[in-house]
Write a structure and sequence with these properties.
single chain, mainly alpha, about 65% helix
């Protein structure tokens, strides 16, 4: 698989897609959780859940999983284009494939049952404690690789990691203390403050992956040889007749 879409165009399409998903999510949740309209139309609750970014097995979840899998495909292709760091790119591709599968299946939620974090209502964040050492080890192992990247690609990837981890860890911790238990029971600000925190968390994660995709696609385009644009063969010119005067015999 080769990406034939320019990195800048890919970035625009993905940013508009992220914006559309979050506007739909906020619009439906404001009506449902903010104003407490629970039975607007038949299957209204299911419709809201289908677009809500903090629910599972719905449109935002499939979109996020697809973003991560696209990143895995591009990383695998980078492994074939960059012989020096082939192993690094391929390992990252495997990591992103795992993240994509986890986003789809929510496997990391099992870490919430480990109870390694005694924080009351926020104890479900135990998975963060389990994942932190793995992230640290991966970051240290990839330090030399990161420094060898072109500066623009390196800073874009660092910014992407900061956005993603800031949403997955920082804002999720904040959201754990903003009334998660009130969702669906108390309309108004009691529910909406958690909705906004959860939306900010998912937005940061999606933007982080989109920025990483842009950096990866741009680096891949710089490494792969450009395909020459086919030109139409020019038709042979007819020999020009010499101009002159003709006299009759």
């Amino acid at each position: 698989m080769r990406l034939d879409v320019p990195a800048s165009k890919l970035l625009r399409v993905l940013l508009w897609s992220v914006a559309a998903i979050h506007l739909l999510s906020l619009g439906f949740t404001i009506v449902y959780h903010g104003f407490g309209v629970y039975d607007l139309i038949p299957y209204w609750g299911r419709i809201v859940k289908f677009f809500y970014v903090d629910k599972e097995q719905n449109l935002p979840t499939w979109f996020s999983s697809g973003l991560l899998f696209l990143a895995a495909l591009l990383l695998w292709q980078l492994g074939g284009a960059d012989a020096r760091f082939r192993r690094h790119w391929r390992v990252l591709a495997v990591v992103f494939t795992g993240l994509s599968l986890d986003e789809f299946s929510q496997f990391h939620e099992l870490g919430a049952q480990a109870d390694v974090l005694d924080a009351g209502e926020a104890s479900y964040l135990s998975w963060l404690v389990l994942a932190a050492p793995l992230v640290l080890v991966l970051a240290l192992a990839y330090l030399r690789f990161l420094l060898a990247l072109p500066p623009r690609v390196r800073w874009l990837m660092l910014g992407a990691a900061a956005l993603f981890l800031g949403g997955a860890a920082g804002i999720e911790v904040l959201g754990a203390y903003t009334g998660r238990e009130n969702i669906g029971f108390t309309p108004g600000w009691a529910s909406m403050r958690y909705v906004l925190a959860a939306s900010a968390e998912e937005l940061c994660e999606m933007l982080g992956v989109v920025l990483f995709l842009y950096a990866t696609a741009m680096h891949l385009q710089n490494l792969l040889p450009t395909t020459p644009t086919p030109t139409r063969p020019s038709s042979p010119r007819r020999p020009q007749e010499r101009k002159g005067t003709f006299t009759s015999p």
